[in-house]
Amino acid sequence: MADAFAAVVATLRVIGALVLLFFLPGWLLINALYPRRGELDREYDALYRLTLGIVLSIAVTVFWSFFLNSLGVNPTTDLGDVNAPNIAGGLIGLSALFFALGWWRGAYPWMARLHPALARVPKPGPGELLTEEERDHRIRLKLQGLAERRESLRRAIKDAERRMRLQSADAREHYEERRERSRAELKEVEAELKQLEEERAAELY
Question: Which of 83, 86, 87, 179 has the fewest C-beta atoms lying within 10 Å of its C-beta?
Answer without folding.
Answer: 83
